[in-house]
Specification:
alpha+beta, Chitinase A, domain 3, Thrombin, subunit H, Alpha-Beta Plaits, 3 domains, five-stranded antiparallel sheet, four-stranded antiparallel sheet
């Protein structure tokens, strides 16, 4: 029996649902997204590759997927504290609507905005006052993940591409790479901070024993 272990790179498909109403909030299947009228042409669909133990997905789900059989499907129920956290009243603030309008923001309930460098959700707009919720948008939710582990990834190039996408958050059009022996030449079309580059180089060295050169 072939089972996953820590630091394995695995390919998986998943669906994340709210437990109370079965509504989907996360998925890899383009077909299902279209069927459920959730399709976003800007989103990337298809199996996701992660490295177990690196928290490329939700921490509790990452931990759950260790020591699981390849090719099998699993279901995991998570409470708020295991998923995106409980709702914390300290992260709910009330601001004057003029503060937002000066930033060319016309607030309405449900709008997600960048406020002082932090993401917030507008909960209400009443009498010139706006209630902003700085909790994670999914905080306080009981959720369920249905996951299928497709296979273990063995090719270094596939592993490397997954690290670029998971750690640098770049799409395939934002970079090109060459892999020769133990050296990687990574050409970026996007600007990445030097500190993030150094962290990426160290992580690739630790996980794949490859040396990265940016250009």
């Amino acid at each position: 029996m072939n089972e996953t272990k820590l630091k394995d790179f695995i390919e998986l498909n998943f669906v994340g649902r709210f437990k109370d109403n079965n509504q989907i909030f996360d998925l890899t299947s383009e077909e299902l997204a279209k069927k459920e009228k959730l399709y976003n042409p800007q989103a990337k669909y298809g199996p996701k590759i992660i490295c177990l133990g690196e928290n490329h997905i939700l921490k509790a789900l990452d931990k759950f997927l260790v020591d699981k059989e390849i090719g099998k499907s699993y279901k995991l129920d998570l409470k708020p504290q295991e998923a995106f956290g409980k709702k914390d009243p300290k992260f709910i603030k009330i601001v004057n609507i003029d503060v937002l309008r000066k930033q060319n923001i016309n607030p309405f309930p449900g709008l997600q905005i960048n406020a002082s460098g932090l993401m917030a959700t507008v909960r209400s707009v009443t009498g010139g006052r706006v209630t902003l919720d700085f909790n994670h948008p999914l905080a306080g939710k009981n959720i369920t993940y249905e996951v299928t582990i497709n296979k273990i990834i063995t090719e270094n190039k596939e592993k490397l591409i997954s690290l670029v996408e998971n750690l640098l958050e770049l799409g395939s059009k934002d970079y090109s790479l060459e892999l020769q022996d133990k050296k990687v030449k990574l050409k970026l079309k996007a600007t990445i901070h030097s500190q993030i580059k150094e962290q990426f180089k160290k992580k690739v060295k630790d996980l794949l024993s490859l040396d990265v050169e940016f250009s």
